[in-house]
Amino acid sequence: MARRVTLPEYDHGEPLPAEFYRRATLEVAADLLGKIFCRVTEGGLLAARIVEVEAYHQEGDMAAHSFNGKTSRNEVMFLPGGHLYVYFTYGMHYCMNVVTESESRGAAVLIRGMQPLAGIDIMRRNRGERNRDAGTRGTRAHGAASRARTVGHIDLTNGPAKCCQAFGIDRGHNGVLLTGGDISILDAPSLTPGQISCSGRIGIKKSRELPWRFFENGSKWVSRSKPASS
DNA sequence: CAGTCGATGTACT
DNA sequence: GTACATCGACTGG
């Protein structure tokens, strides 16, 4: 059941149609920059502008989950474009991708960075409810202040797992369609080629030289990770 | 700053 | 077993 989403302060349109996603993956990746990822929750509307992505493809990309064919984990990647592929990694994080191209192609675009537009208080709450038992060791005098900074505006969505956490996306959202449900991507003005840079990918070793990472020049919400070392 | 490292579940060899 | 499309805390300069 589609419901209309309106962000009065921003120039945007309707949810992107399936045809948007069912094109060459690198084109979709670049075109996704500037579009608005949104989710309707009971607590309110969450919305953020996409500023950093990475493309993955079954063909010639050893880093893609789909590279060795379909499995129970990656089967959503083989659906036709317009679905959300969510996977669990490092024992504690989720990352989300937008499936591209036609059925059985095994291609997707990872969302790595977004600029929050609406529902920032909800995002902060989603990000802040960390399990206090996990990952904390020795205490430090300024630990509390440091922890407060981590939940600041910038750190809400400047990384792939942070985007999922801020939006409350988890394995339950794997495979949802983005073209008319509670989770969708709204059309918005595309960036000009001069506003976009591309580079090798972040945090992987295989096929890292493929220049399939795209980001908006100068955005504060582009993730800061450096390439994985060999 | 930059570099390192532990946490932690799951898919896959 | 091992690797993993990460994050945040910590350490040394």
Write a brief structural summary:
Helix content is 16%, strand content 25%.
3D architecture notes:
The protein is 16% helix and 25% strand. Helix 3 (120-128) packs across helix 5 (160-167). It is globular, with a radius of gyration of 17 Å. The longest helix has 9 residues, at 120-128. The protein is an alpha+beta fold and 230 residues long. It binds a DNA duplex (13 and 13 nucleotides) through residues 54, 56, 63-65, 68, 71-73, 87-93, 95, 97, 110, 112, 130, 134-138, 140, 143, 146-147, 150, 155, 159-162, 201-205, 223, 225-226, 228.
Brief descriptors of the model:
230 residues; alpha+beta; 5 helices; 8 strands; 16% helix; 25% strand; globular; DNA-binding
Blueprint (SSEs and pairs):
Blueprint: H1 18-21, H2 25-32, E1 36-41, E2 44-57, E3 84-89, E4 93-100, E5 107-118, H3 120-128, H4 143-150, H5 160-167, E6 183-186, E7 196-199, E8 213-216
Antiparallel strand pairs: 1-2, 1-6, 2-5, 2-8, 3-4, 4-5, 7-8
Helix pairs in contact: 3-5
This protein binds a DNA duplex (13 and 13 nucleotides) through strand 3, strand 4, helix 4 and helix 5.
Strand content: 25-35%
The total of beta strands comes to 8
**Mean pLDDT across residues:** 90
Succession of helices and strands: HHEEEEEHHHEEE
Largest sheet: 8 strands, antiparallel
Give the CA-CA distance, first to last residue: 47 Å
Helix segment count? 5
Shape, per Cα inertia axes? globular
The whole-angstrom Rg is 17 Å
Overall structural class, as computed from helix and strand content, comes to: alpha+beta
User: Could you name the ranges where pLDDT drops below 50 across 5 or more consecutive residues?
Assistant: 130-150
Percent of residues in helices comes to 10-25%
